[in-house]
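[Discussion] Sanity-checking designs against the backbone

I'm trying to build intuition for which residues belong where. Below is a structure token string of 79 positions. I'd appreciate it if someone posts a full sequence so I can compare it with mine line by line.
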């Protein structure tokens, strides 16, 4: 897989546009705290990759019934 010159240009522009608001919002957060968030999201991303890799043709309702279970879904909707 490769990216075209036009695609690279668009990605560079998107990075610039996204970097500025991120810098404004998170510039004063301690680097250790940032790393904690990254670690949490890394684990979450890995879990979701595994969960969805075999679920391409399943609906969200099917996944909810299979993964947390029907009882848990029912409990969450009552809360």
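Best answer:
Here's mine. Compare freely.
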């Amino acid at each position: 897989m490769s990216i075209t010159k036009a695609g690279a240009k668009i990605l560079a522009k998107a990075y610039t546009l996204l970097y500025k608001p991120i810098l404004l919002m998170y510039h004063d957060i301690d680097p250790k705290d940032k790393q904690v968030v990254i670690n949490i999201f890394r684990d979450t991303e890995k879990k979701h990759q595994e969960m969805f890799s075999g679920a391409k043709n399943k609906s969200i309702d099917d996944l909810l019934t299979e993964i947390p279970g029907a009882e848990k879904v029912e409990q969450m909707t009552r809360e």
